[in-house]
Every structure is written in structure tokens, then in C-alpha cells.
Amino acid sequence: MGGSGEVDASIQAFFPPTPQSSPAKRPPADDIGDGFTAEEIQVALQPKLPEPWHPPGKYTESDICDLRSGPKAVTFMGRICNLVDVANTPKTSRSARGCVKLCVKDETGATTVRLWYAHHVPALRLGSLVSIWTTHISDGENGTLSSTGAPLYASLFPERDRSCHLMLHENSDDGGMHKRPLGFRKGQPLAGLMTLQNFFDGGCDVPDARILVVVKSIGPKKRVTRKDETVTENINLTVQDDTAEAILGLWGSTAASPIGRPVSENNTNPEAIAAREGWKSGETVLLLQGPGCKLNRSTYLTLTSATIIDVDPDIPDAAWLRRWSVRQRSREAINLPFPEGVFDLAIIKSGPIRCLYTIAELDEFARAAPTETFQGYLSVLITEVKLIEYRKRLMLFSGECCSMPLYANDLVATCKGCEQKVVLRASPKIIGQVMDETAVVGPGRLLFSDRAWRSLLGREPAGLLELGEDEMKYLSDRLLFCRVTLLFGWTGDESVAGGRICVLDVTA
């Protein structure tokens, strides 16, 4: 066969010709984004809040002592008496980020609750009132899943299983429910209760030994790195009773228990405010059953998985210990606030009976009538003034916070425990010993009001900070061996003034 035209069979004919210049660039198009609309982005940035939980069926209300192992929809209420962080293991569900083991008790018994969480864990604290809904109660396996004092346990995963739930009562806790310890009987001593000193002397070897202590001070919260490079939180409390004192260490989730939580300004519910308050030095009482103990130079108490701790238990011994602590704290305070509304300065100055006491007579009256409140005059001689010394030591003003003394040559100082600003008052020890012909009053035993400081110093206490060295020495020399008349008040209530003489005013 033959063709009329010729065909180019070269390799160059197979490829299209190369253009002599680059193709014209297309005009830039508008940014088309990532394909999501503004409404979809807004929904992603502000996800919907979780819906409130409602029981999907009928749950039987039960006391903890009536719980039995097996499948059954039950609900019970109690207070958290132990809190342990459970480390993840290879058997841990991948959908769970962690687990917290709680010991929950009422007046009848205690049980263990294993709370799993994926994203959010409630703000659990020792002593918090909680309600539990579960569909199954199990027996602990050799104490690994539950504690020895609470052998039954319930496993909750509220974010995955809608049939179980834990409610933290922050707006409805009046502080009176489930406050009595296990085994308490009115009018009978609590079984296993011993003093702190007896616990150190061998009582720590007694099974389920109990000690009742009051929080003396709360240390700062720390972050500690363990040997396995995990980071945990720690807070140390100084606790005491009328026989001894010790350090109580709280680790992990329990370290948040003594610290209060912020309350919304719009929340006026007193129960909600009380439930979010932190532990108070000198007032919060703890009943520890079976704590761990390390006897070194300073005794160190810890919470084990079997420890049961009651916060402010409703028993007479706790009320007595709290009153004792308030009196002791007032005695040991370095600068108490002046009691307002207890004494009447006008009656002292212009009353029909104006009594002049000596220091010895005041001592006799206070011993003869230890519960009475009386007031009058004292004529004394100032034999010691420490203005210069306390100025050099930066201790002109003093105060107290978290049971720790604060000193400064300033009107405000920062607490090292809670990092809050604390208003300071003039230190009572800048006036040392005062005396009359019968007796001597030691340094710090006179509690001056603001009016008394103005009358004695001739200026506001804050004016001391403006004085130079020569002016301070002149003032100190002028007060030394000066005879003054103190308009004083005395009260036998040591929780008010701590056994100090309250000076309402000073005259020449």
C-alpha cells in the first residue's frame, strides 16, 4: 500500500513543541480556607456542655452496710475518707486516662469506689459529701481493688457508662450529714482512740488505732519529682493534740484537700461557700484510723490505702480539742488583734467606780474569778524599750498567717504559706518589761489598742517607719523609765485575748 503524503517518523515529532516563553500565570484566586464554615468553627471552639445526668432506671437507696456483691442498681451517699491515685497498668483500658480509688463511708460502714476518667475528674477532697449510682457491687480481690476496711467496691466510668454516676454535693452540703465515725455510740468512748504520744510510744502497732488531732499549720503546696520521673503534688500539715505534735504528709490528689476552692461572686448559698472552704489552722479536727507512721527526729504520719480519715467528726472529743486549740493558739500568738466590743472605755474614764489596781492585785483578782471580765487603771513604770533593736531586726510590725509568724518594717507582709497579703500591727514586744511596786509584767503580755499606741508613741504606729535613726533613739530614750497610767481591761476568756492585759488607752 502506498500513501499520497509523507509521515515524519522522527522522535522529535512524537513530543509536542516546547513553548518559547513560560505560560502566563493565572490571577490569584480568593483564599478558599480549609473547607469549614464559620458556624462549624464556632461550634468546635465552644463545644456543648455535657448534659445533666438522669438515672436511666430505678435505683434502690441503701446504707453502705446493706450493700451486697452482685448486679443490682443501687445508690448510696457518704463522705470521702480516703483518696488514692491508681497508677495505670497494661490492663488499664485505653479509653481511660486515669483512675482514683475512693473510700466512701457513712455512719454504718465504708466501701471502695474506683472512679475512672477520660477527660475530667471532679474536684474531690477528703471530707466531701458524694452520692454514688452504680449497677454492680463487687468483692475485692485480695485487697488489690479495695481496701481492707472497705472490702466491697464499685467501679465507675461515668464518661463512658451512663448507668453509673458520681455526684459531688457542693451546693447542698450543710456540714452535718455522715459526720460520725464508724462504731461511735453516744455516751461511750470511741474504740481504739488514743493520744498522739501513746500512738508514738507503741500504739502505732495496734490494728485500726485511732488518733484525734487538730491542724496547727498548713505548709506550702509543692511539686515533687519522683525517681521514675513522674511529678506529684505534696503538702505537709503540722497536727497536734494536748500531748504531742507531728507532721502529716498528703500526696497526690489528697494534697488539694486542705486548700479552699474559689466561689463565684454571685453565689450567696452559705452551704456552697462552706463546702468550698479550706481547712483552717487551729480549727479543723482530723480523726485518723490506721495511719502510717515514720518515727525519726520529727514524727511523720502518712495516709495508707487502709487509712480512714474523718474531717471535723461530730463527737464530743473533737469539740473539746477544738476549744483547747483555740485557747492554745491565743496564748502562743505573737500579735493578737485587739478584742472589740468587750470593754467600755467610757465607763473606765467617767464611771461612778474607777478602780486603781496594782499588778499583784490584778493577778489575785484574775485567779479568784477566772471567768470574769473587769477593767480599771494600772500605774506602771516602763523599764525596757526595744524600738532600736526591733528596727534593726526588721521586726517593728508583726502578724500571723497559717500559724506562721510574720515580721517586717512595713504595714503589709506576704505569707510564705498561702502567699496572701497580711496586714501587720505594731509588735507588742517593742515595749519590754513594765513594773510597779508589787510585780512585773513581761514582754508581750500587754495587748495595745490602736488608740493606746497613739497615746503612748505620740503618733500613729505607721509613723515609726518615717523616723530616722536619731529620732527613733530619742523616742526610745524618752519612753524608758517613764511612768504611765494604763486604762486596761481583763477577760478570763483566753480565746479572746490569750491571757493578756488589754490596754485601751495610756495617760501620763
From TrEMBL:
InterPro entries: MEIOB, NA-bd_OB-fold. It comes from the Eukaryota. GO terms for biological process: resolution of meiotic recombination intermediates. Residues 1-34 are annotated as: Disordered. This is Uncharacterized protein. CDD domains: RPA1_DBD_B. GO terms for molecular function: single-stranded DNA 3'-5' DNA exonuclease activity; single-stranded DNA binding.
